[in-house]
Sequence to fold (714 residues):
Amino acid sequence: MAGHPRQGAAGQPSAKPTAVLLYIFRRLLNVVVMLLVVATITFGIFFLVPWLQHTDPVLRYVGKNANPVAIAGIKVKLGLDKPIYEQFWLYLKGLVAGRSYSNGPDTTWCPAPCMGISTQTQTPVWGQLTGDFPVTAWLAAGAATIWLVFGVGTGVLSALRKRSVIDRAAMVTALAGVSLPVYFTGLVASALFIYNLGWLPESNPNVSLGSDPGAWLQNMLLPWITLAFLFAATYARLTRATMLDVLGEDYIRTARAKGLGEGTVIGKHAMRATMTPILTVFGMDLGGLLGGAILTENVFNLHGLGYDALNGITKNDLPMIMGVTLFAAFFIVMANLIVDLFYAVVDPRVRLA
Amino acid sequence: MTQNPSAEPLVDVGAGAPREFLAVRDLKVHFPTDDGVVKSVDGLSFTLERGKTLGIVGESGSGKSVTSLSIMGLHRNVGKKLGPRISGEIWLDGQELVSASKDEVRRLRGQKMAMIFQDPLTAMHPFFTVGQQIIEGYRQHHPEAKKQQARSHAIQLLDRVGIPQPDKRVDNYPHEFSGGMRQRAMIAMALANDPSLLIADEPTTALDVTVQAQILDLIRDLQQEFGSSVIIITHDLGVVAELADDILVMYGGKCIEKGSSAELFTRPEHPYTWGLLGSMPRIDRDLQDRLIPVKGSPPSLINLPSGCAFNPRCPYADRTGGRSTAEVPELVEVTPGHLAACHLPAETRQRIFAEEIAPLL
Ligand SMILES: Nc1ncnc2c1ncn2[C@@H]1O[C@H](COP(=O)(O)OP(=O)(O)OP(=O)(O)O)[C@@H](O)[C@H]1O
Ligand code: SF4
Ligand SMILES: [Mg+2]
Fold:
């Protein structure tokens, strides 16, 4: 990925507002190009996979035993009879402006960004993704809050009490968190809290925050904690290591030499330097998660983007897979951009290039 | 072991508050490590009057920084299992610091005593502006000061240390300053609360030669203006030649010679000091003539050589009848106010200096 901010050399003035705008503009252009590349690749896969499997993509929509006339009709409607370059062009056009699938009497309008028609539901993929996105967004937001608080908190505490019992216990737990996969911790947590202790009800994918907030909260609790555990472990280790580095820096000694209290030295001077790299990683992680937490969503039967992705894969719903991929790519690329901008704001040494 | 039992004790540990502004008595700072106890400072004593400048000189690892950090109370983990063991007395204006509580020392830090560090780039926080960093130190000890007032104080300080356009530069970040300007800003930061003791730990080592002299001039001017006592630490005798009233030479965590600056340059007593003088760069001599480095490497602070710690490197160790390797030489007064720790008889030292050393300097 091009265009990461560089550390400015000594004596370089901070970024000017116009430079920032220009930078944002360039990076947004970058985002568009990246998404175009992803769209091209996924489109390629959409045609490559059926070709490798010696099947006609249209069969995914109609089933093998449909009558040839119906198949031909659908084929025309979906535009699968057109040459590939034309289909690609229609696909891109659909993403930007929407498109209508039509074979005369039978017309389906697929509004922009049109990512194609799901072979399972026969409805536009985009509508399904936006319908499922809140589940993923809530999962990511809740988990992120938990892991940021606990991960960073534990990391700071461990660094300040280096080699203490707390530090060792935290780091062993963190090691477990890093090495245990979600489907293991998730299944163990479900078995324990839902089936064994009965503290939480069985997960129900049909409740939402709007319909039943209480049940929703109970539904989300284990997925949040499971996902947060995985990330908190990484963050605790990262925070601890960064904090220990920062505490050894000369400017921390200077802060103490000024007579500042330990609270200010740690809470202001050390935290400021520690949080910068951590929030960078956080932005990327969050961006990645918004595209779907495949394992967690499936372990806990949450119908978010990660569920759609796995479902698309198992049911061979190629437009769905393409859609989720593009959707996830969008968040990752955007997170990248936001993190870079964030860095330019918090680290005065960064020069936008 | 005492060389002159009749002499007055040179260090009055436990004698209560001293007359001097700063008095360090038998300071020991030992770091327990996996390899053994590092005796970074081992029985150091000195005094400093108000408004005077003391130069502490010695090669890398001789314990200069550890000494200054002890005065500032900046050692970490003191009193913990793996932390340094600090003993002795440090009296600052009638208050003893080694036994004082952390909070008492913290309140003096930045206010009564301040420190300038070697590398101003790493010593300043990269994410805060120079102004913010000065203001923060000022308001810590002047909580009643309004933001605006603290800011104009910071601008005044920057102006005083010779930073052009201080009202603009106050909002710059440290990386936007050049090395020399950064050290000036660091000095401004240290002066924020008008400290009566200023410790400068190698304030010019990280700077260009051309800038070094300017910074030293600035420190001297400020010292005269503010009337503070200054400790200036360096491994280069040349740096303190014009600045210091007194000079203390450290070797292996101990003081091996101290006296007035004039005495030390004209009548140095200790062979190690001769070596330091010999390795001072001088513009009026050719290179091969003026650099007589002290041969060998600094001693291990875990296992100091027996006897005089300098003996493996000392060209005269064989002229003391074996005492150099057997007995630790005590610091004794040679002439009033001039002390040295060497087994060579005073007359022998003076003869060697006059015949073998002085012509080379
Ligand atoms: N925290 C510590 N733990 C262990 N040893 C230490 C510690 N701090 C300093 N030392 C040791 O104490 C000795 C004296 O260090 P000090 O920093 O005082 O040297 P210095 O005279 O300032 O040298 P330089 O000119 O290199 O700054 C060194 O050998 C150093 O390794
Ligand atoms: S005591 Fe001996 S070894 Fe030490 S400086 Fe004097 S002569 Fe050299
Ligand atoms: Mg040092």
